[in-house]
Write a structure and sequence with these properties.
- This protein has three domains: 158 residues, Jelly Rolls; 185 residues, Jelly Rolls (Sandwich); 39 residues, no CATH class.
- The chain has six helices and 26 strands.
- The strands form five sheets. It has a seven-stranded antiparallel sheet with strand order 2-3-12-5-8-9-10. It has a seven-stranded antiparallel sheet with strand order 13-14-23-16-19-20-21, covered by helices on one side. A five-stranded antiparallel sheet has the order 1-4-11-6-7, with no helix packed on it.
Length: 455
């Protein structure tokens, strides 16, 4: 889905902090500077008005030189704080009380970003992606969260937490000029997607296990579905050919063909292992009667229309850009029916029908190979296996795992006791130092032990 034209009606009113804020906050500079006086709770602040799509909120932040875990949290919410809270009823900790299902979307800023950028910015896009970036950094802002169930406009809100004890709203017109120290080149946050993905898979074996579609397979199912090896195109693969990655993000297209055909009644299950959510598009999915073995030694064109024209003797059924929001570790299930309708379910949610430009009444008689073009947000995808449609159960109860709220890279798999806050094992072991008295970074309760979550 291409980005719509941005409508600029007039300049928004100056942004300040809302009069509803935590009891541990002191306001100054005409409610543009918020300082946490002491402690770790009661430090929530909101914007004085709603924020427009793509409107950047610039925050100058102050970091304490202390050995603490936990960092500034920023995000957006759907409710006017004045209609929900007073200063007395505002919760002490956003992490435990203001959650995504209630319309409060908050994420921790990466420690490295706060350490290297004295001014950060946050904004949300038209498709519900929340981005965080550093004003003085060449790398683009990174998407940290997708808002799926709510629509804007949104209020900005923040929890001044951890090493950060002060934030100040900065007007864009007063920002320092960085033209002498930066250029217009957009750098990818990752230089080698295959290396990144392989490292993640090797260090966290849980990533290879499905969460949302695991019920489709018995415990002894052999996951032997593979991508077809290609010689002259913009993809690289893991040694087992189950995971494919974009080789060069500056090129437009990255075709990946599944080596086995998909039949009516089959379900193809995949998982996203890397995302570049600065792209406005998602990915292309299609089915073709062209034998991918005949294409593997060819240099394939960037434009899909040219690929189809060059292989016009075959049939092609394609959605050029799947209209949905995806994020890291999402699981995708594709299948089609007798009438040529192709469906997608993300994370076992209700399926959506893909936009296929033409259909065929003889799908049962066709040998159809699935393929992807990873030209958009999805820069790495892994195959699991075919299952069958009669096993799909969208009401199946799933104990899904979220991303670790500290590193935003690994899945939650460990619980801190006694407070029961959850994060990944790597971050948990850093926090729980054997020789020191360790406190939870979220509520500052003393940690007595770490408990692995059941698979």
């Amino acid at each position: 889905m291409s980005k719509p034209s941005r409508r600029v009606i007039d300049k928004p009113s100056p942004l300040t902090f809302h009069e509803i804020y935590g009891k541990g906050i002191t306001m100054s500079n005409n409610n543009r500077q918020a300082t946490r006086a002491s402690g770790f709770g009661d430090a929530i602040v909101f914007s004085s008005r709603t924020i427009r799509t793509y409107e950047k909120i610039f925050l100058k932040h102050r970091q304490k030189d202390v050995d603490w875990i936990g960092s500034l949290r920023v995000g957006f919410c759907t409710s006017n704080p004045q209609e929900k809270f007073t200063r007395e009823t505002l919760p002490s900790l956003a992490f435990k009380n203001l959650r995504d299902p209630d319309g409060y979307f908050l994420r921790a800023c990466p420690d490295e970003l706060l350490r290297t950028s004295p001014i950060i910015y946050v904004y949300y896009s038209f498709d519900g992606q929340i981005y965080i970036g550093g004003y003085d950094q060449k790398t683009p802002a990174q998407a940290v969260l997708t808002i799926n169930e709510h629509s804007g406009p949104y209020f900005f809100f923040s929890e001044i937490y951890g090493k950060t004890d002060q934030i100040e709203l900065i007007d864009e017109s007063t920002l320092p000029n960085l033209s002498a120290s930066t250029n217009n080149e957009i750098l990818s946050p990752y230089q080698d997607v295959l290396q990144i993905v392989t490292k993640k898979l090797n260090s966290d074996t849980n990533l290879r296990n499905l969460q949302f579609f695991n019920y489709l397979y018995s415990s002894n199912t052999s996951h032997n579905l593979t991508f077809l090896p290609t010689n002259q195109h913009n993809v690289v693969m893991t040694n087992d050919r189950r995971v494919v990655c974009v080789d060069n993000r500056k090129q437009k297209s990255s075709y990946a063909f599944v080596a086995n055909p998909l039949k009516v009644g089959d379900v193809l299950v995949c998982r996203i292992f890397d995302c570049d959510q600065n792209s406005p598009a998602t990915l292309l999915f299609g089915l073709t009667t062209a034998d991918p073995n005949a294409l593997k030694n060819q240099t394939l064109p960037d434009e899909t229309e040219t690929l189809i024209r060059q292989n016009s003797s075959s049939q092609w059924f394609i959605d050029n850009d799947i209209s949905c929001s995806v994020t890291l570790y999402d699981e995708l299930a594709f299948w089609f029916d007798d009438n040529g309708r192709i469906y997608l379910s993300i994370n076992n949610r209700s399926p959506i029908e893909l936009k296929i430009s033409k259909r065929s009444s003889d799908f049962k008689q066709l040998t159809l190979y699935p393929f992807f073009d990873l030209y958009g947000q999805v820069t790495s995808i892994g195959l699991y296996n075919f299952s069958t449609q009669n096993k799909l159960n969208f009401n199946y109860e799933i104990n899904n795992r979220e991303l670790c709220p500290i590193c935003c890279e690994n899945l939650v798999d460990t619980e801190l006791l006694p407070c029961q806050c959850r994060l990944c094992q790597i971050c948990a072991e850093i926090i729980k130092k054997p020789t020191l008295i360790s406190d939870c970074p979220f509520d500052r309760k003393h940690i007595t032990q770490l408990r692995p979550l059941p698979l």
